[in-house]
Amino acid sequence: xxxxxxxxxxxxxxxxxxxxxxxxxxxxxxxxxxxxxxxxxxxxxxxxxxxxxxxxxxxxxxxxxxxxxxxxxxxxxxxxxxxxxxxxxxxxxxxxxxxxxxxxxxxxxxxxxxxxxxxxxxxxxxxxxxxxxxxxxxxxxxxxxxxxxxxxxxxxxxxxxxxxxxxxxxxxxxxxxxxxxxxxxxxxxxxxxxxxxxxxxxxxxxxxxxxxxxxxxxxxxxxxxxxxxxxxxxxxxxxxxxxxxxxxxxxxxxxxxxxxxxxxxxxxxxxxxxxxxxxxxxx
Length: 283
Ligand SMILES: [Zn+2]
Known about the structure:
Low-confidence stretches: 5-29, 32-48, 249-253
Largest sheet: 6 strands, mixed
Number of strands: 12
Strand order of the largest sheet: 2-3-6-7-5-4
Order of helices and strands: EHEEHEHEEEHHHHEEEHEEHH
Number of helices: 10
Mean pLDDT: 80
Number of domains: 2
Bound molecules: zinc ion
Distance between the termini: 24 Å
Radius of gyration: 21 Å
């Protein structure tokens, strides 16, 4: 997912946010806050929406990595499983003397070194140890590979639901706006994705494009008489550029805003003014 981050820059990160590892929404590490998980068994009461699957040898793999990282004391009881997350996610939660770990089921057939790397990343966060690069590199390379990115996209199409919302706001019609921008800047060549206003106001972003359900969402906060149309157009244009420039691999980091993307973004006729309005809105 690609997000406009201007609002984010203005606000401090919330502590409950998942710790993002690969700086991309589809590859995140989440550490459940201790206060929420303590004393509660996961999924008690309601039946789970999705079924997890076994992680054969998971507990001993975590014990091994625990020792390799030089964590002190007796290793906890590890409970590891694969879980059908909608993205490449690793989660860990500590409860009393047990540690519950879930790996995205995308990793189910991953080589052992990849699984060990993922375990090392999680444990190094929770136990505040520095994981040796050689240990985590196989996981990072795996997570960033084009092959894995492709599998994530295909999987997301099946697992990520479209946000049920429409393009027509109170003040702005995004579908109409899309067609105009498409004509003006893309010679009408972009295929129209699902477009809509977010169902809730977002605090930290103006828009996003999720290639999973192929949907552009704009922050409903902008569907307001006080917001100049040019600012909404600019955000939509930015998300349309994500359609045109899919996230690709570059060196060892994921680049959603490539130099070509940034250059093309400046072709927006009221670029400076629109950015100024957004800066103002983000305050
Ligand atoms: Zn973007």
